[in-house]
Automatic annotation (TrEMBL):
Signal peptide (UniProt feature, chain positions): none
Subcellular location: Cytoplasm
Name of this chain's protein: Ribosomal RNA small subunit methyltransferase G
Assigned EC number: 2.1.1.-
Family stated for the protein in its record: Belongs to the methyltransferase superfamily. RNA methyltransferase RsmG family.
Length: 220
C-alpha cells in the first residue's frame, strides 16, 4: 500500500493538542494521520470512500468515530459490524490500545483493505473477520458491538445484540434519525433482547458536531 498524499494536507479542524487528547498521545496521532492518508489514497482508488469525503475525512469520519471510545470500558472486547473501510473500529482501536477490536465485514475488497491497513498502522489489538454479522461465531461474547451506517436500528439490533454478552452493549452511531428509529423499531429491539435504548452524545468537548449514539444493553 502506498501513502502518496500526506495526511497533513487534509486539515483535521481541531488543534494538535485535541488530537493528542482523542488519540492518547503522539503515537496515536501519528497512526490516525497514516489512516487518514490511506483513506485519502487507497480508500478512494479502491472505491471505499467517495472523493468528496476527502476534505471531511478527519471530522466527519475519523474523529467522530474515535470519540465513541469514551463510552467503552477499559479492556473491553469490541466488535465493529459492517466496518467497511474501518469505521468506527479503526479510530477506536487507535485511540484505545487497551481494547481488543474485531472488524467484521463481508465484502472481500474491503477486508483486503482492512488487513493491509491494520498491518500498515502496526495495530496489534485489531483482528479482521470476513463475515456477515449473522454468520459470526462465537456469538454472545463481545462486551460492546459498534456499528455505523450499516442498517436501520431494528435490523441492527437483530444482528448486533446476539453477538453481545448478557449485560453487554450495542452502540449504533446514528445522526438525527436516532429518536425516530428508536420509536419505529422499539418492538424489534425488545424482541432482540434489547433493554430500553438511550441516546448518548460523545466528543462534545472536542468536536463542533458531537457524535450521536444509540446505546442498547442486552438483557438476560
Ligand atoms: C455504508 S457501509 C458503512 C461502512 C462503515 N461502517 C462506515 O461507516 O463507513 C455499510 C457496510 O456494512 C456492510 N454490511 C452489509 N450487510 C452486512 C451484514 N449483514 N453484516 C455485516 N456487515 C454488513 C457492507 O458490506 C458495508 O461495508
Amino acid at each position: 500500500m502506498t501513502d502518496e498524499s500526506s495526511a497533513s494536507e487534509i486539515e483535521p479542524g481541531v488543534s494538535r493538542e485535541t488530537l493528542g487528547s482523542i488519540f492518547g498521545g503522539d503515537e496515536g496521532v501519528a497512526r490516525a494521520e497514516t489512516y487518514v492518508g490511506l483513506l485519502a489514497t487507497e480508500g478512494i482508488t479502491r472505491g471505499l470512500i467517495g472523493p468528496r469525503e476527502v476534505p471531511r475525512l478527519w471530522e466527519r469520519h475519523v474523529l467522530n468515530s474515535a470519540v465513541v471510545a469514551e463510552l467503552i470500558d477499559s479492556r473491553s472486547e469490541v466488535l465493529d459490524v459492517g466496518s467497511g473501510a474501518g469505521l468506527p473500529g479503526l479510530p477506536i482501536a487507535i485511540a484505545r490500545p487497551d481494547l481488543s477490536v474485531t472488524l467484521v465485514e463481508p465484502m472481500e475488497r474491503r477486508t483486503v483493505f482492512l488487513f493491509e491497513a491494520v498491518q500498515e498502522l502496526g495495530l496489534d489489538n485489531v483482528e479482521v473477520v470476513r463475515a456477515r454479522a449473522e454468520e459470526v461465531d462465537p456469538k454472545g461474547e463481545a462486551d460492546v458491538v459498534v456499528s455505523r451506517a450499516v442498517a436501520p436500528l431494528g435490523k441492527l439490533a437483530n444482528w448486533c445484540l446476539p453477538l453481545a454478552r448478557t449485560g453487554g452493549t450495542m452502540l449504533a452511531l446514528k445522526g438525527r434519525s436516532a429518536a425516530d428509529e428508536i420509536e419505529r423499531d422499539k418492538y424489534k429491539i425488545r424482541k432482540a433482547k434489547g433493554e430500553s435504548p438511550e441516546i448518548l452524545t460523545c466528543g462534545g468537548e472536542f468536536l463542533e458536531v458531537p457524535t450521536t449514539v444509540v446505546s442498547i444493553v442486552k438483557a438476560g
